[in-house]
Amino acid sequence: MTTNFKFDLDTDGIALITWDMPGRTMNVIDLETIKELDALADKVSADAAIKGAVITSAKDAFCGGADLTMLNALLGGFAEGVKTRGEAAAVEHLFAESRKLSQVYRKIETGGKPWVAAVNGTALGGGFELVLACHHRVAAENDKTRLGLPEVKIGLFPGAGGTQRVSRMMMPADALQMLLKGEQLRLSRAKAMKLVDNVVPAADLVQNAKDWIKAGGKAVAPWDEKGFKLPGGPVYSKAGMMVFPPANALYRRETYDNYPAARAILQCVYEGLQLPMDVALRVESRWFAKILRSPEAANMIRSLFVSLQELNKGARRPAGIPPTKLKKIGVLGAGFMGAGIAYVSAQAGLDVVLIDRDQESADKGKAYSQKLITDQVNKGRAKAADRDALLARITATPDYAMLKDVDLVIEAVFEDRKVKAEAIGKAQAVIGDKVVFASNTSTLPISSLAKEFKDPPRFVGIHFFSPVEKMMLVEIILGKDTGDAALAVALDFVRTIRKTPIVVNDSRGFYTSRVVGTYIREGHLMLTEGVPAAMIENVGRMAGMPVGPLSLNDEVAVDLAWKILKATEADLGAGAIDARQKTLLEEMVEKRGRQGRKNGKGFYDYPEKGPKKLWPGLADLQPKKLDPDSIDVAELKQRLLAMQALETARCFEEGVLTDVREADIGSILGFGFAPFSGGTLSYIDMIGTKNFVTLCEKLAGKYGDRFKPSKLLIEMAAKGETFYGRFPPEKDKKAA
To answer: Is residue 300 scored above 70 in pLDDT?
Structure first.
């Protein structure tokens, strides 16, 4: 008797195993699933009346992968085992437990009866590994189906045979690319890669699978047949040597060896292809148990899976406020940001009134949506009808009266207080008394902007990141008077457009802009110290950031950094800025006219043809020049990461941030803080608060007071506390 699977045997002796976990919208792999699959594998193998088995799903998707809480439980048991039985025994137990799924799949593969995966929808992770372990794979025609092994994106790798089967089904270079990228493949591509044998109409799926068994389908995987040859030839061959040494070099270039799981994938494929399948699977399991114990995996699972899901499901939504059913929104300002907001809103099915100063400007904003959706049509990711429907939902106009029946207004006009005040005034004269008004400001305090609105409790900040259609984070800012109802509407809107929200309190730069500013500033100061610009940029990437601080400044605009610095000095005094940074930016912007990518010249030059290159004139702006061989690269990396983590801790201490999950998710999705660390606060926890404080004190002694640890950090270090230990997320809050 099984809970998660329905078993039916037809008159031809073919078992139909239908996966349908009760109480879940999607099938996942947990301990009970593994146990039941194991029993079903034994049943199919042992019963002479059963000729073969077809496994499918009763849900829209086949399987979403492993339930990661199961892995967390394994790690909890490991930690307890270390205390009670010693580390060696605990490691061996973890190895045995973590490979049970791999053993079940191998039992299916070698049980002597043919198994067919009838894939009716998306199959990812461990679910797709089950598909690969079957002897034949047939999928139902479905544009939404995605197949893949995305584990590397959360610090793990396929540990139930995925690395071994994929690398025996295709050329090793292609297998490594698939495994290391963690791509989710469309059916057409999966079939071209021979990961799927056949794609059929949904109505024919199960019958097609059964027909393959009735036609004498083999119950032996190709790699278990005598004389099997690897698609790419032996590892130690001319072809093999053209794959693995370059793959190792590419891995190091792309990851700087920051991701243990990615390194383990290379190792598993390299070692496994030299071994018989059963031994190779054991090697894979050894590596999986090792990676499972790494701090990088623990932090990435927590931040990029558990916390991300909790925030996406409304963990920060105020309780007791009914969900808002948004139908129509207004967007003020059809520039780059406003046009992007209009696009993602219309894409989510909302009607949008896009307003600008004149019809030509408004139409230009709508044209941005037309370009984006046309690109999707040309790539085969959308249909012409989808484009027509999306554009029909956007009304471009200069007429504020068109806002009269909207459910939410988002202001995205030029970052000038007077311009924003004018837009707020025009909108509030038209909209209803219960409509929430949001500002997409990135620098101006929400509390001060709310003074221009007739009802401050209905005023909230919704800070998008550029480009809106690509960036997944949205920073919701609470002014001092923002009410729970406005917060709830803002969160409901962000959820509607399928982005991830974090909620922060009002302050200069909010959270993300404030912290990323310290990364850029550190790059500026390194330059003034005489560190070569190329070294600064390379070290930024080596530390785990997506781009170096100088490149990032070019993207957000060098003149914007200059404006922010001047505004900070005017508001808070000369002590609030670094004079060296002021001198550098003044020289760059005022004297050299180098504003960044937007005018083709910043810290980099941007030729019309060819890639960007560091501006040679940067060397002339350096008061002194250090010998690169004398510079401690590890210390440069520490400066870039520690400064961001330290500023995040200050935001937490000041109450700008109130939830550790939002600090970490915001840092990764907002400005690309080293994902392998799990985020800025996880980075502190990972190296230990005491060690972090010691590091900051060392850097402060050498580079200045900006590195001085805060009072909270010193207190936590003395007590041996972690952020997740002292400030655990409120798990008892129900998602709305």
So the answer is: yes
Edge-to-edge strand order for the sheet containing 198-200?
A: 5-9, 14-19, 52-57, 115-119, 136-140, 198-200
Report how far apart, in Å, the C-alpha atoms of 173 and of each of 85, 223, 266, 716 are: 42, 18, 11, 47
The distance of Cα 405 from the centroid of its chain, to the nearest Å, equals 35
- Residue pair 396/334 in contact (Cβ under 8 Å)? The answer is yes
Element (H, E) at 437: strand 436-439
Where among 484, 507, 530 does a domain terminate?
A: 507
Q: What is the 3-state secondary structure (H, E, C) of 232-273?
A: CCCCCCHHHHCCHHHHHHHHHHHHCCCCHHHHHHHHHHHHHC
- Into how many domains does the chain fold? 3
Q: Are residues 248 and 358 in the same domain?
A: no
Same domain? 471 vs 435: yes
Name the domain boundary from 250, 273, 293. Answer: 293
Euclidean distance between CA atoms 519 and 509, whole angstroms: 14
SS3 percent helix, strand, coil of the chain, rounded to 5, is: 55, 10, 35
482 and 520 housed in the same domain: no
The CATH number covering residue 529 comes to 1.10.1040.50
Q: Which 3 state secondary structure label does DSSP give 42?
A: helix
In the predicted structure, residue 731 carries a pLDDT above the cut 70 = no
Strand 147-148 vs strand 123-124: parallel, antiparallel, or unpaired?
A: parallel
Nearest C-alpha neighbor of 497 from the set 341, 718, 272: 341
Does pLDDT of 513 surpass 60? Answer: yes
Same domain membership, residue 527 and residue 605: yes
Mean pLDDT of 285-313: 94
Q: Length of the chain in residues, anyone? A: 736
386: containing domain: 328-507
Joined tokens for residue 235: 């590892």
Q: Could you give the CA distance from residue 57 to residue 73 in angstroms, rounded to a whole number?
A: 26
| DSSP calls for 647-692 | HHHHHHHHTS---HHHHHHHHHHHH---GGGTSHHHHHHHH-HHHH
Establish if 452 belongs to a structural domain. yes
85-118 tens-digit pLDDT: 999 999 999 999 999 999 999 999 999 999 999 9
From start to end of 445-507, where are the E strands? 459-464, 473-478, 500-505
Residue 306 lies in a domain: no
Q: Are residues 578 and 531 in the same domain?
A: yes
In the annotation, is 463 catalytic? yes
Q: Are 522 and 472 within one domain? A: no
What are the two backbone dihedrals, phi and then psi, of residue 329, each rounded to the nearest 5 degrees?
A: -125, 160
Q: What predicted TM-score, i.e. pTM, was given to this entire model? A: 0.91
- Give the relative orientation of helices 579-586 and 558-572 as an angle to the nearest 10 degrees: 140
Select from 250, 277, 299 the least CA-distant residue to 166: 277
For 608-654, the DSSP string reads: SSS--EE-GGGGGG-SS---GGGS-HHHHHHHHHHHHHHHHHHHHHH
Give strand pairing partners of 462.
476
Q: Per the domain annotation, does 706 fall within a domain?
A: no
488 by DSSP, 3-state: which? helix
Tokens of 519: 């990364």
Same domain, 498 and 420: yes
For 163-177, what is each residue's pLDDT tens digit? 999 999 999 999 999
Pairing outcome for strands 604-605 and 613-614: antiparallel
Asked, for residue 109, whether it belongs to a domain, the answer is: yes
Q: What are the C-alpha distances in Å from 719 to residues 77, 128, 680, 724?
A: 25, 45, 20, 14
Q: Point out the catalytic residue in the list 93, 135, 136, 463.
A: 463
Are 134 and 209 part of one and the same domain? yes
What would you report as the CA-atom Rg of the chain, rounded to the nearest whole angstrom?
A: 28
Residue 735 DSSP one-character state: P
Bridge partners for 410 per DSSP: 331, 438
Residue 697 neighbours by CB under 8 Å, 6+ apart:
707, 708, 709
